Structure to design on (50 residues):
């Protein structure tokens, strides 16, 4: 690998790692209460009684 391709790889990897860290921080700060199931009614979730 040339120095130029290694630099490009390092920058891309650092950007991806930063994005993952940012998502984790946002989830921790918001309490993790947001997600795809937040937008559905609980009436759509079947209740199984023993």
């Amino acid at each position: 690998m040339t120095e130029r391709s290694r630099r490009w790889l390092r920058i891309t990897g650092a950007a991806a790692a930063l994005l993952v860290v940012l998502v984790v921080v946002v989830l921790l700060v918001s309490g993790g209460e947001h997600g795809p199931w937040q937008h559905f009614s609980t009436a759509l979730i079947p209740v199984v009684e023993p």
The chain has one helix and no strands. Residues 41 and 47 are 13 Å apart (CA to CA).
